[in-house]
Amino acid sequence: MNVFVLIKQVPDTETKIRIAGDKASIEKNDIKWIINPYDEFAIEEALKTKEKLKEGSVTAVTVGPDRAVDALRTAVAMGADNAIHVKSDDAVDTFLAAKALAEVLKKESPGIILTGKQAIDDDQAAAFNYVAEFLNLPSASVLLKIDIAADKKSAKVEQEAEGGALNIIELPLPAVLAVNKGINTPRYASLPGIMKAKKKEIKTYQLADLGLGGETARVKDSDLQLPPERQAGKKIAGDAATQAKELVRFLREEAKVI
Fold it and tell me: In the predicted model, is pLDDT for residue 13 greater than 90?
């Protein structure tokens, strides 16, 4: 079974974000870029699937500028067999990126398609659904377990629901499955894997190669703003009775919530 993993390169969560002068983008010069953390769980699940089935291959696919190749090489260093890069600029929105990923998958023979439940930069949690729709495939998200049937024609998945409940869903394969944190523990890249990744040939497509040369982003950012800085908290001194009395005064006179 050929497993395809859709990944995205995102800013590290510890990066200090700065708004660019046009207020439609962020400053990218000093950003450390990483694989979207949820996609790391998808990579690990793809590798575990290959190991369990003892056949097939794992291919990582991403859409992005030249720097996105680093994310693909990290996936290869973790154990992926192949990598595909759809080269684009940063103006590509989620819809167009998903369309490009779908066109790549049409050229391949995916037995199953894995990805993270959402990207930590925009939190849209939409790409997997778009890809499934473009390919007319079933999909499921927020998954904590994936069991592939012996005949490889279906999969039974456990989907996390509100309140800690689990939905058990059976889907025919191929399908697009978006995993959640907790499904596994992603492995570290090994030294041999890192050396292999440096030499790995990465298949590259331009949007025009996929019939999307005339496509433009449908969603554009404007007037980006950083959230306001939080005000410092207040610490109330004294015994319990004094603290309670002072807290009530704060709530009534300053916060004005009572």
Answer: no
| Rg, C-alpha atoms of the chain | 22
Residues in the chain: 258
Distance CA 57, CA 82 (A): 8
Is 27 in a helix, a strand, or coil?
Answer: coil
Q: Please tell me the pTM assigned to this model.
A: 0.86
Fold of 2-210: Rossmann fold (3.40.50)
Exposed e or buried b for every residue in 8-18, given b needs 16+ CB within 10 A?
Answer: bbbbeeeeeee
Question: Measured between alpha carbons, how far apart are the two ends of the chain, in Å?
Answer: 62
The confidence score (pLDDT) of residue 233 equals 80
In the chain, which residues fall in CATH 3.40.50.620?
A: 2-210
Contact 45, 114 (CB under 8 A): yes
Cβ count near 195 (within 10 Å): 11
Token output for 130: 């778009």
CB burial readout 87-123, b (16+ within 10 A) else e: bbeeebbbbbbbbbbbbbbeeeebbbbbbbbbbbeee
pLDDT attached to residue 21:
81
